[in-house]
Design goal:
globular, Sulfotransferase family protein, Rossmann fold, P-loop_NTPase, Sulfotransfer_4, 5-stranded parallel sheet
Length: 209
């Protein structure tokens, strides 16, 4: 079963691209923490896709991957605000966030690093992730890299997905500034619940054990 995986890091436009894909008729999960959520969705963004894209590539052959780029000078203050707000809830033993989300953030950001919120550490995390993505997909044609702030990026995405498009359309700009929960507030019939239950209840894939 082919899927669309959005593998850009948080604060690169994962909510905006998720909403854009909803409006194009795709079933979308912004974060997915159960096998069933992955099965139900056409497109999945954010956690754990940005950390688990290699495993998902094996689980869902012939899928397409979209890497979201963002200027570091804009990404850094945004990701700092997010990590500062989410930090206490991401801790392994005391945080109340979903274990899959906590693992995903830990894998990318090394949450116990004493320099977690420094420009140097976060820049390293961003560039390391970018380099790993580029290396993994080198020579393949199933990865698209875009900056959603650029004119024409939505058209490029829809062409990549072989989906009919209007060249005048642009990405919506959501989760501006300190906002982090626009996805929850956005109402659409094509939204897939991150915790969708199926025949395996709310079990996640076991590839990370």
């Amino acid at each position: 079963m082919t899927k669309i995986f959005i593998i850009g890091l948080p604060r690169t436009g994962t909510t905006s691209i998720s909403v854009a894909l909803l409006e194009q008729g795709f079933k979308v999960a912004h974060t997915a923490f159960t096998k069933q959520a992955f099965e139900l969705a056409d497109a999945i963004s954010d956690s754990p896709c940005f950390s688990d894209y290699q495993q998902l590539d094996l689980l869902f052959p012939e899928s397409k991957f979209v890497y979201l780029k963002r200027d570091l000078c804009k990404w850094l203050p945004s990701i700092k605000r997010l990590l500062y707000k989410m930090g206490p809830h991401l801790m392994p033993k005391t945080g109340h966030f979903n274990p899959v989300l906590k693992r995903s953030f830990e894998q990318i950001f090394d949450l116990n690093n004493e320099l977690l919120l420094s420009d140097a550490h976060l820049s390293h995390c961003y560039l390391k992730h970018e380099q790993q993505v580029e290396s993994y997909f080198q020579g393949r044609d199933d990865l698209l890299s875009i900056d959603i702030s650029h004119v024409g990026s939505l058209t490029a995405l829809l062409k990549f997905l072989d989906h009919e498009c209007d060249s005048a359309q642009q990405f919506p700009h959501l989760n501006k500034g300190t906002q982090v929960a626009n996805w929850k507030e956005y109402k659409h019939a094509n939204k897939i619940n991150s915790l969708s239950a199926g025949r395996d209840h709310r079990k996640f894939f076991d590839y990370h054990y």
